[in-house]
Amino acid sequence: MPTPSAAIVVTGGAGFIGVNFVRKLLAVRDVDVINVDKLTYAGHLASLADLAPNPRHHFVRGDIGDANLWRQLFARHRPAAIVNFAAESHVDRSIAGPDVFIETNIVGVHTLLREARDYHASLEGAARNAFRVVHVSTDEVYGSLRSGEAPFDEMTRYAPNSPYSASKAAADHLVRAYFHTYGLPVVTTHCSNNYGPYQYPEKLVPLMICHALAGRALPIYGDGLQVRDWIHVEDHCEALLAILCDASPGETYNIGANAERNNLEVVSAVCALLDELVPHSAHIPHRRLLRHVADRAGHDRRCAIDARKLRDVLGWAPRWSFDEGLRRTVEWYLANRQWSEEVLRLNAGRG
Ligand code: NAD
Question: How many Å lie between the centroid of ligand 1 and the Cα of residue 279?
Fold first, then answer.
């Protein structure tokens, strides 16, 4: 595990989960964070603005597929670990245009692994033993569960159904191969659906909040009964910290908070919170804005996580209930409307 005052490279640290993880890491560890992000439509410096005065946060605009960048970062910072969040992450975008998912999620991850392997080989003694690459994958690599079927555990076979999940699955196989072939000390995680602050308003929860506040239709795919296992992003970040500190190389961990909800339930809960928290809205009851639209192609029906290994081996447990976490999330979006408006405006400007 990284020693105090070491540097840790976090990739994708201007995106939703990365921003939350960088904050947590800076708050609880005396480390320098080298935050490497390409700043695609999903990465926003606005989410990091308040970290500017922090001398331990170093932002580097760059692509995980750039081998030269990795060589420079390793030479300059001698990092003790890499936590890889960088990815194209939106299933709908992967259906409309899969190429960039292959480029970043597979080819980019391979470049990261190859350069990390060479860097790791150059380390000696304690630094070599402590080095880790934590690769943040997704539960979507496991595909879809039937109602009543046991949740995904670490032994569930891969069955990805979208170009997004297939690209993440391919990367996971490369990560595994780099452990078995080259001894690169990697750990892979599979987390369920996150919600919380700084999530770009194209994913379910923030999309619904932003549309509802504007009185726009709330689009529900198909019958809306697709089930996801929801976790507050802070719980995910705490699980990743535990894994970064204590997991053994070559391990995989599933991360989830036992909160299965279908999309209709989630959107209804968001609407009810908005009815309560924005009592003078012209759109009450917000639920009236719901509109069923054609289902997403290849849409997983149900995802659920068995996180017992993480609890039993590393002692992690989620702290947020879904109801409390969702309330806090809606409150955050209400208090930070400028953030949503700014990131949407910037992307509209990109054409
Ligand atoms: P996000 O789309 O909000 O952020 C991704 C970040 O990666 C952005 O800041 C983007 O600019 C950056 N990026 C994209 N391509 C890059 C490249 N080539 N080089 C450097 N940076 C690049 O995604 P997120 O929701 O924060 O997800 C982070 C990771 O967690 C992803 O790997 C995703 O697969 C995984 N994950 C997400 C969830 C979820 O519910 N959001 C659940 C499980 C796992």
Answer: 34
Tell me, in angstroms, the distance from the centre of ligand 1 to residue 224's CA.
Answer: 25
Global pTM value: 0.97
Distance of CA 256 to the CA centre of its chain: 12
Q: Is the beta carbon of 14 within 6 A of some atom in ligand 1?
A: yes
Whole-number Å distance, alpha carbon 70 to ligand 1 midpoint, is 18
How crowded is the C-beta side of 173, counted as CA atoms within 13 Å? 13
Joined tokens for residue 142 = 């496991």
pLDDT digit string (tens) for 120-152? 999 999 999 999 999 999 999 999 999 999 999
pLDDT in tens, 51-106: 999 999 999 999 999 999 999 999 999 999 999 999 999 999 999 999 999 999 99
Q: Is 139 in the active site?
A: yes
Query: What are the counts of helices (DSSP H) followed by strands (DSSP E) for the chain?
Result: 13, 13
Which residue in 164, 195, 200, 253 is the catalytic one?
164
In 3D space, the residue among 254, 249, 269 whose CA is nearest the CA of residue 311 turns out to be 254
Distance CA 97, CA 112 (A): 23
Say which residue the tokens 């960048």 belong to.
69
Helices (H), the chain: 16-28, 67-77, 91-96, 99-101, 109-122, 125-130, 163-182, 204-213, 233-246, 263-277, 308-314, 322-335, 337-349
Give pairs for 159-162: CB < 8 Å, separation 24+: 161/298, 161/299, 161/300, 162/91, 162/94, 162/95, 162/298, 162/300
CB 135 within 8 A of CB 173: no
